[in-house]
Amino acid sequence: MAEHLASIFGTEKDRVNCPFYFKIGACRHGDRCSRLHNRPTVSPTIVLANMYQRPDMITPGVDAQGQPIDPEKMQEHFEDFYEDIYEELSKFGEVETLNVCDNLADHMIGNVYVQFREEEQAVAAHNALQGSLRRTAATVGATVILCM
Ligand SMILES: [Zn+2]
Q1: pTM above the 0.90 mark?
Q2: Integer angstrom CA distances of residue 148 from 9, 38, 44
Q3: How many A from CA of 36 to the centre of ligand 1?
């Protein structure tokens, strides 16, 4: 029985623990999810929730004033962000993978997933960024958590 539960932990067969939250640190049901939202205690990967603020996040292709945005400007905006965040994260260790979510769903938008080479590097980044995000008014609401 325990072996069976261990084998389905964090998978879609698990009716108790939410597989989406466990894997990606986000779930479309949020606090209303019927399954438990567990965070791994150790992982080489962190998620910076809703970190990338795309210029057209309200309506795709259009800015907040309703003006169309040049796709090249969008790309530039993204590349500037990517370079900055890569540089910032590299201070904590070797970045193996850096993904910025392009999904427009509330629980996914702008999520930045960072996989470090070592778990300790992810923990160091997590602790440092959690502290700095709390101090930065512009990113209130952004959270940093470990995920698989
Ligand atoms: Zn969930």
Answers
A1: no
A2: 13, 11, 8
A3: 7
